[in-house]
Amino acid sequence: MQRTVKRPYWRARELVMIGIFAAAIKLSSLLIALAGGGMNPVSLFLKNLVFTTLLIVLFSKVRKLGTLTLFTAVSMIVSVLLMGGSIALLPAALVGAAFAEAAVFLTGGIQKPWAPYVGVGLYDLASKAFSLGVSYLVMRETPELMISVVPIVLLGYAGSLVGLFTGYRTIGELRHAGLVRS
Asked: What gap in Å lies between CA 74 and CA 59, rounded to an integer?
């Protein structure tokens, strides 16, 4: 009798990598905000650029469905427990992660070369759009407040779009160095 061993979906190495990247992204975002003197347009742009770049590196190293969702959950735990972040941001981030994972699956799967860029780009877009939608519902009695919020979110998303390019370049360099093999 042969006994078949069922392998777990997540290897310990992948879980550790997701945790390290979640902490590194939170720490780099905090350092950029502190170095920039608070959340001004330049530090907001740079924070989103670094976030997107590092998330593309993570998604390229851990190519499994559920990576963005697990990253989001771990990132929110780090944010809430260690940095005093708001748990109210969790639903928008989870909706963005689920939307991005579904889009990656529908565009050919996780192993396609464009999967990290589609996933991370749509993750940022969907989470920011859902957050704006919830904000609009909360502020529907004074929608004029959205006039000041939308440009800030658009500036952050511009940083994310540039982060897609820098992530592409970073992955190219990491492949050249032999650190990413996909």
From this structure: 14
DSSP 4-54: PPPPPSS-HHHHHHHHHHHHHHHHHHHHHHHHTTSS-HHHHHHHHHHHHHH
pLDDT at 182: 63
In this prediction the pTM is 0.87
**Helix-strand-coil percent breakdown of the chain, rounded to 5?**
75, 0, 25
Which residues in 111-128 are b (16+ Cβ under 10 Å) and which e?
eeeebbbbbbbbbbbbbb
Contact 147, 33 (CB under 8 A): no
